[in-house]
Specification:
This protein has four helices and seven strands. By secondary structure, the protein is α/β, with parallel strands linked by helices.
Length: 145
């Protein structure tokens, strides 16, 4: 387990960028954190670490956004508004979770039952006592991730 503390949006972006730089084909990252915790900022950093230059926004209403121009395909899921795992079946999530790209899944705790056996869980927490921009980012590997 790794704990990263950041004190600005830029530092949260950089923490994500470092993950993107080290990411390998087939890896799945889950992002857990409340609204405004910094999940999208972290994801934007991960995309930058993969060499993706186009704007990365949270796919809240589309569930999945695909970015192909980096060194690996990047699949950004936001399952906040998902009605159930059936919707994940409809978009063919297995093709992405078990494919040759990198998956980043925001609100992954809502679909825990379909997560692959190996993944990396990233939890982002705010602490108002430490400052408005403070984030505690915990990175935990599950399975063989």
């Amino acid at each position: 387990m790794e704990v990263i503390e950041t004190n600005s949006a830029e530092e949260t972006f950089e923490a994500g960028r470092q993950i993107g730089i080290r990411a390998k084909a087939g890896e799945v990252y889950t992002l857990i954190g409340g609204l405004g915790a910094g999940k999208t900022m972290f994801t934007q950093g991960a995309a930058a670490g993969l060499g993706i230059e186009e704007p990365v926004n949270s796919p809240t209403f589309t569930i999945l956004q695909i970015y192909d121009e980096g060194r690996l395909p990047f699949y950004h899921f936001d399952v906040y508004r998902i009605g159930g795992v059936e919707e994940m079946d409809e978009i063919g999530y297995e093709e992405y979770f078990y494919g040759n790209g990198v998956c980043m899944v925001e609100w992954a705790d809502l679909i825990e039952e379909i997560l692959p056996p190996s993944y990396t869980k990233i939890t982002i927490e705010k602490d108002p006592d430490r400052g408005f921009d403070y984030r505690k980012i915990t990175v935990e590997k599950y399975g063989d991730a």
